[in-house]
Amino acid sequence: MSAAEQSEVVGARSVGPPPVPVDLRLAAAAVGAWGVAFLATGRPDLLVWGFAGSALLLLVVLGVLRRTGRGARVALVLVAATLVLFSVCLQHSRSTAGGVEELAERRVSGEFSAVVTADPHALPTRRDGEPPRVVLDVRLTSLDARGATRELAAPATVFAVAERWRDVRWGDRVTFRGRLGTADPGERSVVVVSVGDLVRTDRPTGLLELSETLRTGLREAVSGRSADVRGLLPGLVVGDTSALPPDLEAAMRSVGLTHLTAVSGSNTTLVVGFLVLAASWAGFGRRSRLVVAGVGLVGFVVLARPEPSVLRAAVMGGVGMAGLAAGRPTRGIPVVAAAALVLLVADPWLAREFGFVLSVLATTALVLLARPWAERLTRAGVPRVVAYAVAVPVAAQAVCGPVVALLQPAVNVVSVPANIAVAPAVGPATVLGLAATLLSPVWPAGAAVVAWPAGWCAAWIAAVARAAAQAPTSVAVPPGVAGALVVALLTLLVLGAVAAVLRWRHGPGRRWPALALVLVLSAALLVRCAPRWGGPAGPWPPPDWLVVGCDVGQGDAVVLRSGPRAAVLVDAGPDDVLVGGCLDRLGVDRLDAVVLTHFHADHVGGLAGALAGREVGLVHVSPLAVEPAAGRVREQAGSTPVVPLTAGDTGAAGAVTWTVLGPEPEAARVRAPDSAQVNDSSLVLLADVRGVRVLLTGDAERDEQRAVLARWPAGVVADVVKVAHHGSPTQVPQLYATARPRVALVEVGAVNDYGHPAASTLDVLAATDARVLRTDTGGDVAVAGTASTLRTLERGPDPREAERRARYGSG
Questions:
Q1: Same structural domain for residues 607 and 640?
Q2: Which of 208-212, 413-417, 471-475, 770-774 bottoms out in mean pLDDT, i.e. has the lowest?
Q3: How far is residue 221's CA from residue 422's CA, in Å, rounded to a whole number?
Q4: Which residues cross the membrane (predicted)?
């Protein structure tokens, strides 16, 4: 290239306005407010001192600012923090008025009045014969107990029998009888309520009544379509997932499509953008179009329920539109920060919600990265429409991926292609679905006609989700911060490779770095850390496995290796196919013993599948025989002896030995036990597998855990602990501190409405420095090696079994 040509190229590259610097002042204030909100909502006992200290420090900084003119940014951060602390103080004081927390500690019963603030969601049954249950959020307004009435304003989580609560909807005023209980620290709800009878329901009128009519109209407009369409289209339009098939929900979760059914900024952007476009076609001026957008946004919030997530989506959706409309995307950063700051001041508990984190990050990616990336692709020759269809999900995935890894330590390499594949269908499905919704009250037949093509779009999205979930492309990463760092590194590799490839046309010297990056990335993904992270190459299971936690959904099934093709099975999960498949993969032909810790369905429901085609030595059971489950166990065992165990008993099977630490023989004498008593009758074993000690706790709750702790062998530690009751909050930290496990195994379903594993339980495990293995995120998990060289491996969730696993914990 001649000097003149080089000068021309340089001059061409310099054309255009200089880059606009990114304004991070409000971003710093938003981050500071976020941290303060997170800490303050978890420690309400320190609120007054925190607010006083923040206000005092703010006064000092303002004084310095007035004298020296310095410290404006610090003052801005302190203003944001002080506003958040004031909001937390005000809302916490209002929520706990009437002494509701003290009443909860005393487990007071009475008649409550409340306003429903979230639609009910179904809960799985805990044991045979138990009626279906639901969970929902309410705001308690009064309590009539012991002849006195207290006025309340307490957000609460309600657990109730589903029979009369299924038809309760957001905005209803309800009266019911129930008993108060305490909530976990940091939760939005200050109490929980176990409900007895629903006394009365008063339906709302006006806009709320119209909202429910419209939602019902949409469900009726697609009533004749497939189950996928009936469940998915209302979710796409208004976030109504009440009819979404559990297996489709699991498939969408595994490939990163669940954001489509959560009312998000993209929903509001599509809806409001459509209204603005229609107003433009109708000849409305700029100001009139803004009015139409504002009215449409408010109307959509009412239609989709003004819950915190929807309000967040409305604000962020508006920001997303502003960012995409802006000529320079960096201008969107202050707007995003301002929106986040307003939301945190209005609702500080958002700081603890992953949904809020992902919403802010996705919106930031939209306004900061999507446009320049799309323009870069366009300059490289990619059609503009395709460039934006690729840039938007890639930008969101790049920014949100590390955070998602904290929730689910796995990366599915088809997530971005799946999002790109469904992108053309999301807009038409949402807009046509909204049109059908608005048309349904006045012309139901016309609404069904309009909903028909929207249903095709929804069916395409469902088909993509199911097909992508079947592909063995889930890559496991380490849990926690390490996994987030791995995902961030992989993301940088991808972006670096793409950037290098796009620069090929500027000179052949750039090809080799690009190819090297592509090869490194391909090797990292094709070797597939899943089904294991850090394990040996080769098929599952590892050849020297000792303990395996089977992924049976919301249930327990732990396998202890007792011989080359033999094992001891502790619990059989809720499903015969799931537990049978796990044993088949391990090559187990003989069960030297089966131990059923107690008779709840999520521990004995799969027994037939475990026994099928295998020799069985003995079946050991809890001394508390709960019918009819105990009768079915005896029937399925056939001629195999069924022997109860109690504290003090010992046993051996092949290479496995055990000592029973609970329950006491008196457990057999309990009559008409409730669920907690059945849990506390769980067999608790301290087993030895080739020198590796394993503590198996069943669903033991606090009472039995304390009893086990009282009889714990002096000086003994457990290498592996099966965490009690799927990681529920009913744990005794001292038991885990005494056991000092190196590995903690949590048998829990990816789809469960109990909130398992509880954050408080994970904190207890973190205090022991144990490596936590979770079947919801790791699939089948294994402990292998020897006592001196213990290591852990994960098979990874199997999407082909997602439907079966989801049956036992969906809500």
A1: yes
A2: 471-475
A3: 22
A4: 46-65, 262-281, 356-374, 386-408, 420-439, 446-469, 481-502, 514-533
- Report which secondary-structure segment, H or E, holds 510: none
Q: SS in 3 state form for 36-94? A: HHHHHHHCHHHHHHHHHHHHHHHHHHHHHHHHHCCCHHHHHHHHHHHHHHHHHHHHHHH
Q: At what angle do helices 444-470 and 415-439 cross, to 10 degrees?
A: 170
Q: What is the pTM of this model?
A: 0.62
Cβ contact 406:483 at 8 Å: yes
Same domain, 53 and 179: no
pLDDT in tens, 261-275: 776 666 676 777 777
Host domain of residue 731: 545-797
| pLDDT confidence of residue 17 | 46
Domain at 174, CATH number: 2.40.50.140
DSSP per position, 571-621: ---S-HHHHHHHHHHHT--EEEEEEE-S--HHHHTTHHHHHTTSEEEEEEE
C-alpha–C-alpha distance, residues 266 and 388, integer Å: 14
User: What's the pLDDT tens digit per position in 182-204?
Assistant: 887 778 888 888 887 788 888 87
- Residue 258 falls within a domain, yes or no? no
Q: Do residues 668 and 711 both lie within one domain?
A: yes
388 Cβ contact list (under 8 Å, min separation 6)? 370, 374
Task: Give the separation between CA 486 and CA 643, rounded to whole angstroms.
Answer: 48
Q: What is the CATH number of the domain that holds 695?
A: 3.60.15.10
Residue of 88, 84, 101 lying closest to 140 (CA atoms) = 101
For residue 663, whether the previous peptide bond is cis, meaning omega lies within 30 degrees of 0, is yes
Query: φ and ψ at 746, to 5 degrees?
Result: -110, 110
What is the number of structural domains in the chain? 4
Which amino acid, one-letter code, is at 740? R
Bridge partner residues of 653 (DSSP): 656
The total number of residues shown for the chain amounts to 811
Better pLDDT: 669 or 649: 649
CB count in 10 Å sphere of residue 369:
19
Q: Determine phi and psi for 134, rounding to 5 degrees.
A: -135, 160
